[in-house]
User: What shape does this take?
Amino acid sequence: MKVVILAGGLGTRISEESHLLPKPMIEIGGAPILWHIMKYYSHFGYKEFIICCGYKGYVIKEFFADYYLHRSDITFDFAGGNNVIVHSNVVEPWKVTVVDTGRKTQTGGRIKRIRPYLEENTFMMTYGDGVGDVDLNALLSQHKASGMAATLTAIQPSGRYGVLDLDEDKNRIIGFREKAKEDSNWINAGFMVLEPSIFDYIDGDGTIFEREPLERLSVDNRLGVYLHHGYWQCMDTQRDKSALETLWNQGRAPWRRWEE
Assistant: This one.
């Protein structure tokens, strides 16, 4: 099954780095977050990827073009006829298709543009800036059993700020507490499974997938949800990046399921 990754946005909320790189190429622990996402899917056996590029998409193309070179020990023998000798290498069992889906194309439009690469089969889709420990096999099993056209993963984000408890008149603070996940609404975390029929809900480049297509699918009772109670984090800001970096450096990254 193919995995589509949306990687074409501008990443304006993390402009400290995205002015140089597309957001999916911002590094966590020395590797792009895009790489982390692909390693996670690969751990579950999903190893064929379609990357939807847009803003600075050439950076993503160059990363994969040079992937073998950067992760191998190599001797460049200029005196011996300009030969290249590979001593050891780390090769991912991946097939990666990188598609330029337009710099200003919206999320729905990006998905519609890669339809020819999907061969009218069920596929997975996620965003190129979020990691988690979602059970992808359980997600797929639920989707297949439901008969839905689309199933998205939903999470309850932890509160970033503390909560004030007020008295009945709301003129006095009577306590402080941390905001629990249970206090939050469920939100879209990506990690979707989609049927080819979803293309009928996407008009073109200007379509935002999370709006009209998903709204119409829900009205038609064709949109399922997989509730994820574990870890998930989107890298929206520099603060998010720092938090992900800390988890990785401390060896506590919940999404790191693979063996080196």
About this structure: The domain at 2-152+187-249 is CATH 3.90.550.10 (Spore Coat Polysaccharide Biosynthesis Protein SpsA; Chain A). The chain has eight helices and 16 strands.
